[in-house]
Amino acid sequence: MRKHIVAGNWKMNTTVPEGVELAKAVVAKSAEVPADVKLIIATPFTHLYPVNEVVKGSAVGLSAENCADKEKGAYTGEVSVSMLTSTGCEYTILGHSERRQYYGETDEKLVEKTRLAIAAGLQVILCVGENLDEREAGKHFEVVGAQTRNVLGNFTAEDMAKIIIAYEPVWAIGTGKTATADQAEEIHAYIRGILKDMFGAQVADDTTILYGGSCKPSNAGELFAKPDIDGGLIGGAALKAEDFIGIALSF
């Protein structure tokens, strides 16, 4: 069964002490959130262990923002899935547009990362989305469809139980622009149609698809009211507990 999820991606923000305090504030306010809405916070690698100590035993899940595409070895600066699980982490974001844009992450590399994450018992939040040039050229369906198929075509219907998809219109991240609720729903429904073609109606209906693109308390309600939008992958608004919880209360 698909779930309502509000996941906060902290990106490269907060020191460890600041992150611990933010996590404490989220946990304190999480009691206000209905039981059918899952809260997840995705922190920098340095924060995972101490933040896990804060969220442990609460309804708040813990995610990493990335993982390595290798199990272990001489890969200086990388963080493996076994390192993540050893912190108590349950999820990892993969394929975020910033990773694709700034660090050249390819669909092929994401296949390896997703495979390792699932094998380690992590749930994957897989990001797909088009940039402004692709949107204006009318290629958004083509781009999102290719990203979805290129990665998920390597996995089974059973694997899909461990995968959450996040659609992020790259042109609406950190720009203050937001896709209209109708634009977002159109792509979410399109992704769900691809999942139906690939894995069947049950998997398509059970897969959670999140919207990620300048989602705020002021627009979350309209977005979440759409039938194929199951929640949000939140950036800037996740850095304030009150805003983050406000989004979760928008269902």
What's the assembly state of these chains? single chain
Residues in helix, %: 40-55%
Instruction: Specify the overall morphology.
Output: globular
As laid out across the biggest beta sheet, the strand order is: 7-6-5-4-3-2-1-8
Sheet/helix structural class:
alpha/beta
Mean pLDDT: 96
Distinct helical segment count: 11
Return the string of H and E elements.
EHEHEHEHHEHHEHHEHEH
Strand content: 15-25%
Cα-based radius of gyration, to the nearest Å: 17 Å
Distance between the termini: 17 Å
Largest sheet: 8 strands, parallel
Q: How many beta-strand elements?
A: 8
How do the strands and helices of this protein lay out in sequence?
Layout: E1 4-9, H1 16-29, E2 37-42, H2 48-55, E3 60-64, H3 81-86, E4 91-94, H4 97-103, H5 107-119, E5 123-128, H6 132-136, H7 140-152, E6 163-167, H8 181-199, H9 201-206, E7 209-211, H10 217-224, E8 231-234, H11 241-248
Parallel strand pairs: 1-2, 1-8, 2-3, 3-4, 4-5, 5-6, 6-7
Helix pairs in contact: 1-2, 1-11, 5-7, 7-8, 10-11
Task: Describe this protein's structure.
- By secondary structure, the protein is of the alpha/beta class.
- It is 43% helix and 16% strand.
- The protein has an eight-stranded parallel sheet.
- Helix 1 (16-29) runs parallel beside helix 2 and helix 10 packs parallel to helix 11 (241-248).
- The radius of gyration is 17 Å and the shape is globular.
- The two termini are 17 Å apart.
